[in-house]
Amino acid sequence: MKKLKIALALFAGIALTSMNTTAFAAEGKETTITGEASCAKCALHTSEKCQTVVKATVDGKEVSFYLTGKEAKAFHEKICSGTSEKVTVTGTVKEKGGKQMLAATKIEEVK
To answer: Is residue 13 part of a domain?
Structure first.
């Protein structure tokens, strides 16, 4: 019985570590998301550096996409004061350090 519990715990651990949140947005492929953009440092208090984060609902779950690239840097001044804005972002997603990084190629404000 003890061996069965150990085997089940091991199996569960392997299953959990193999789950990948990039299933929400296909890694390496161009993706478009719509959500609320805000500053990771000033508004969300989740980072020591200012960075644009878009919180979007994907497959019924809230996912935070950390934007990278020159488009993200240019857009950041609009939301760094602690405000948020609804946006549609197009770019390529990859996971880095457990975070969804989106290399933004286009950011549009949703009106």
So the answer is: no
Examine residue 12 and state whether it is found in any structural domain, yes or no. Answer: no
Q: Token digits for 50?
A: 């200012």
Residue 62 near residue 56, CB atoms below 8 Å: yes
Q: Can you give the pLDDT at residue 63?
A: 93
CATH code assigned at 89: 2.40.50.140
The residue-averaged pLDDT of 91-101 equals 92
Nearest to 89, CA basis, from 97, 79, 11, 66: 66
Which residues form the domain of 87?
21-109
Tokens coding 29: 């492929």
Question: How is residue 50 annotated by DSSP?
Answer: -
Alpha carbon of 66 to those of 4, 33, 61, 82, 89: distances in Å?
41, 12, 16, 16, 11
Q: What is the pLDDT of residues 22-62, one digit of tens each?
A: 445 556 789 999 999 999 999 999 889 999 999 999 889 99
Work out how many domains the chain is built from and give that number: 1
